[in-house]
Specification:
The protein has 4 helices and 8 strands; from the N terminus they run H-E-E-E-E-H-H-H-E-E-E-E. Helix 2 runs antiparallel to helix 3. The strands form 2 sheets. Strands 1-2-3-4 form a 4-stranded antiparallel beta sheet. It has a 4-stranded antiparallel beta sheet with strand order 5-6-7-8. It is about 25% helix and about 30% strand. Strand 7 and strand 8 form a beta hairpin.
Length: about 200
Amino acid sequence: MIRAQDVTEYSIQSVRCKHLSGCWYEVSYRPYPKDSTTYIPLRITADSLGKVRISYVTPDWGNRNYGDYWFDIPEEKVMDDQDGKTFVETFYKSYAYTYIKMRPDLEQGLKHLRETYCTPIMQEKYVRSRKEVEQEDPMFDPVIGNDDFDVFWYNSLQVHPSETKGCFTVSYGCTKIRVAPQCQDGKYKIADVELIP
């Protein structure tokens, strides 16, 4: 969140915050007097009780980019009745959209997508995979191969046929996932996902 492992006394004294526009602010600091300044754009919103909260912190790879337009992506309808590639692409765009919008019912929205568009075996694998890494990475989501899906990755999301017959490679940022769709009664479902190292 602060783009550093350690905090110095000087860091704390050098913290500044300025309004950028709308609900966007920028926090800045320097670890030591001769170091370059670290700039971190963040967005604030009111929660359901009207309390102001930080709702998004631009990650390191986002540099100093900010703005609500990053979050203005269309909601994708999952098309499970056309072909495997269209299904995988629309499923992942919908799944990413759910993460990016960060609504209070985020977990329920993701669970609904998995229950609707993943086979029972894939749903079981999801639960097992989460349990396997629960101690060291409790936020890990096997469907996306990451802890969450950042808005800055959305434009890089691509789906291509995989070398494995009938599978597709979903890639975004530095992440690649092999996805196996399965067609049952004219409807596609995600049968398996595997993170590609």
